[in-house]
């Protein structure tokens, strides 16, 4: 018998010996202990079956997410590089380039909980406590505008959360409706008289952005900027701004990222950064003449989603007034 046939025979024997009875007979392995099975049997079903006892809210979840998840998914669940976006994408599923996130696409919250609990954080799966998983999931929900920041997600409140795309899926019935069309012999050559390209790509994402300029607004806004500059406060603001760096750049060579560059924002017209595609709500208030004065920026930074309903900015906000003031002072050090 050749070495190849011997290898095939050995594989066949091993395959036959994979069952419990054969394994015992051949002396391979042992039966799993009940506690070992329980450790792996952690499925969470859409109806809440399998949920562990625990609780967490978005406020605690923000800190845990920043430490455990932000390196891949961004501080605000907006995704970094090719890592998945977990927030946003609402009302995009009917487009040519839908953004499928927890908030826009996933039909069951149990999928999110089960995945985070079982597989995250990347490279260190299974290290999160149940309370931490609840808090992280709560923060993801909050980033998708599905709960308030003080909503406590727990095994008791889990089913109170409605997922926007819960009714967007249907049973796959292709076996009954389509498979019969492909049951004959497939055509392998000369199947079509002519092959040619009939359409160009539907999604190119290279459409130039219209430049927005509001000199009149900027002129009014210049007067709103305070003349005095607090160097020490700006230094504190640089530390706080670390929470913003995932989406915004400042200084020489700054480029638009998930959010626009923030050079020269203080005291200037909203929605005026060239080349950045603003959300409709932001563009509407910009067209109405919004100017980013200190007071307007403080209100926005405190709770972005309350200040501007529908904003793409998923950051929960800076709760401390001193942090708000420090960031604004830091931004004042960057001109146009």
Instruction: Tell me roughly what share of residues is in helical segments.
Output: 25-40%
The fraction of residues assigned to DSSP E strands is under 5%
Count the E strands: 2
Low-confidence stretches: 1-14, 204-210, 220-227
Largest sheet: 2 strands, antiparallel
Broad shape: globular
Keywords:
2 strands; two-stranded antiparallel ribbon; 336 residues; 36% helix; mainly alpha
Walk me through this protein's architecture.
This protein has 336 residues and is mainly alpha-helical. Strands 1-2 form a two-stranded antiparallel sheet. The longest helix is centred in the first third of the chain and has 14 residues. It starts with a helix and ends in a 5-residue tail after the last helix.
Topology:
Blueprint: H1 3-16, H2 20-26, H3 34-40, E1 55-57, H4 58-68, H5 70-73, H6 109-119, H7 130-143, E2 152-154, H8 174-177, H9 215-222, H10 231-240, H11 280-287, H12 294-302, H13 304-307, H14 321-331
Antiparallel strand pairs: 1-2
Helix pairs in contact: 4-7, 6-7, 10-14, 12-14
How is this structure best summarized?
With 336 residues, this protein is mainly α. The chain has helices at 3-16, 20-26, 34-40, 58-68, 70-73, 109-119, 130-143, 174-177, 215-222, 231-240, 280-287, 294-302, 304-307, 321-331, and strands spanning 55-57, 152-154.
């Amino acid at each position: 018998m050749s070495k190849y046939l011997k290898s095939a025979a050995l594989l066949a024997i091993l395959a036959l010996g994979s069952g419990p009875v054969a394994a015992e007979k051949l002396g391979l392995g042992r039966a799993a202990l009940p506690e070992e099975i329980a450790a792996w049997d952690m499925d969470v079903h859409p109806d809440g079956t399998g949920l562990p006892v625990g609780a967490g809210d978005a406020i605690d979840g923000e800190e845990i997410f920043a430490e455990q998840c932000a390196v891949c998914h961004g501080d605000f669940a907006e995704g970094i590089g090719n890592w998945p976006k977990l927030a946003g994408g609402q009302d995009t599923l009917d487009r040519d380039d839908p953004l499928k996130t927890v908030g826009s696409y996933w039909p069951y919250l149990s999928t999110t909980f089960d995945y985070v609990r079982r597989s995250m954080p990347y490279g260190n799966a299974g290290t999160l406590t149940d309370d931490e998983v609840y808090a992280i999931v709560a923060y993801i929900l909050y980033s998708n505008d599905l709960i308030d920041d003080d909503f406590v997600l727990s095994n008791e409140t889990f089913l109170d959360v409605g997922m926007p795309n819960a009714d967007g899926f249907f049973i796959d019935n292709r076996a009954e409706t389509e498979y019969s069309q492909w049951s004959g012999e497939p055509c392998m050559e000369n199947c079509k008289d002519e092959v040619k390209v009939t359409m160009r790509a539907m999604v190119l994402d290279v459409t130039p952005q219209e430049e927005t300029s509001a000199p009149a607004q900027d002129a009014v806004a210049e007067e709103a900027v305070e003349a005095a500059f607090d160097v020490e406060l700006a230094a504190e603001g640089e530390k706080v701004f670390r929470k913003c760096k995932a989406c915004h750049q400042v200084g020489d060579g700054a480029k638009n990222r998930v959010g626009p560059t923030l050079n020269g924002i203080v005291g200037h017209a909203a929605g005026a950064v060239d080349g950045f595609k603003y959300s409709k709500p932001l563009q509407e208030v910009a067209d109405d003449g919004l100017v980013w004065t200190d007071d307007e920026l403080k209100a926005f930074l405190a709770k972005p989603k309350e200040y501007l309903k529908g904003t793409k900015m998923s950051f929960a906000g800076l709760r401390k007034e001193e942090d708000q003031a420090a960031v604004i002072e830091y931004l004042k050090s960057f001109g146009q």
